[in-house]
Amino acid sequence: MSADKDAPVPSSKRRDAPAKGRGKREARKRKKGAGVVGMFLLFGAAPIGLLIWFYAQPTWRQEQLLDRVPDGAGGRALKAAICVGVLFGLAKIALPAFHGTGATLKGWLDALKAKPKVLRVVLFPVEAVVWLLWFVVQLLFALDAILIIAAAIGTLVLVARILKPDLLSNVLPPILQ
Q1: Measured on CA atoms in the order 104, 110, 114, 116, is the torsion positive or negative?
Q2: Cα dihedral sign, 98-99-104-110
Q3: Rounded mean pLDDT, 4-15
Q4: Whole-structure pTM value
């Protein structure tokens, strides 16, 4: 019996050992925190730093910098910002919504297929409606993915056109010009 007391305790049985997966979870939290700091620096501190730098310049230098910006750049920048908003909405709201809805409908289909045959015959109209809804959601998911790609390309073109207004002017649709 004394040999059992002196035997080393496995790390999973020790009270001071971290729970399984805890180290990975904490590492992910640390990485996520670093991302928040990076986002703050990119979208918060960098524009403020640029404004401070701009207003610290002499007046003649400020006018020289503003003269280099083509006419209509504000409107093109607004269009690019709207395109980024559309891209964000499609990627962060619509795409996960379609994915979740499709997974839920697939679960319902699997549950209906697991029913006894007699009950499946009775529930066939319900199964057909659920399958049709699942199919429509899959089409919308694919359409959303295509729209995300189009919005990303549109954003890149609009951002490039802020300073180069004649870039691709003969190819772009009127809404992007």
Answers
A1: positive
A2: positive
A3: 58
A4: 0.61
